[in-house]
Amino acid sequence: MIKELNLVNSDLILNSTRLLILLSKFESRKAFKMNINKIMLFDFYMKFPKTMIPSEDKDIKEQDFNEFYSFYHWQPDREQYHQFIRYLLSKKLIDKKILSNDFIYQITERGKSVIEKLESDYSKQLDAISDYIKKEVAKLSDAKIEENILQNAFIMK
Q1: What is the pLDDT of residues 56-87, one digit of tens each?
Q2: Which residue among 18, 58, 97, 125 is least crowded, i.e. fewest CB within 10 A of its CB?
Q3: Residues 6+ apart with CB under 8 A from 98
Q4: What torsion do the CA atoms of 145, 120, 71, 37 make, to the nearest 10 degrees?
C-alpha cells in the first residue's frame, strides 16, 4: 500500500511540475489567459513532443517519453488536471483568478523560485518544449490546436 501511494504521489508531482514549467512561460504575457482548456491542449505537446513537434523545429534532444509504448487518449481527463492544479494551488505555486467568467492560472513568485531550482535533464527538456509552445503553438486557435492533435495522433486523417 505504501509503495502504491508513493507511485501516486510521484505521478502527481511529476505531472504538476510539468504544468508548472508550462505556466512559467506565460507569466509575462498578461493578455494570454491560461485556463484549464489551454493547459490541457498545451500539455499534450509537453507529454508527446515527438508526436506533436515537427522534426525540423526540434531543438529538443531525442528522448523516449514513452510515446511509442503508451498512448494518451483525447480528450484528457479533466478531473485529473483539476487535481494537478489543486496540488499546485495548495503549495502556493500558482494563483487562480477569475477573468472574463473563466478561471485563469498564473505562476507565483514561489512557483518561479521552484522552477529556478530545477536542474534535471527532464526539466530542461520540458523547458525547451514549453518555449516551442509559447513561440509556435500559443498563436493558434484552440480549434486549430485540437485539429493538430487529432491529426498528429492519427486519430483523424
Answers
A1: 655 554 544 455 444 555 567 889 999 999 99
A2: 97
A3: 104
A4: -30
Q: Is there a contact between 105 and 95 (Cβ–Cβ < 8 Å)?
A: yes
In this structure, are residues 55 and 155 in contact, taking their beta carbons and an 8 Å threshold? no
C-alpha to C-alpha distance for 152 and 2, rounded to whole angstroms:
38
pTM: 0.83
- All structural domains of the chain with their residue ranges: 2-152
* Number of C-beta neighbours around residue 112 at 10 A: 15
Backbone angles phi, psi at 48, to 5 degrees: -130, 65
Task: Specify which residues 97 forms β-bridges with.
Answer: 104
- Report CA torsion sign: 39, 62, 144, 78: negative
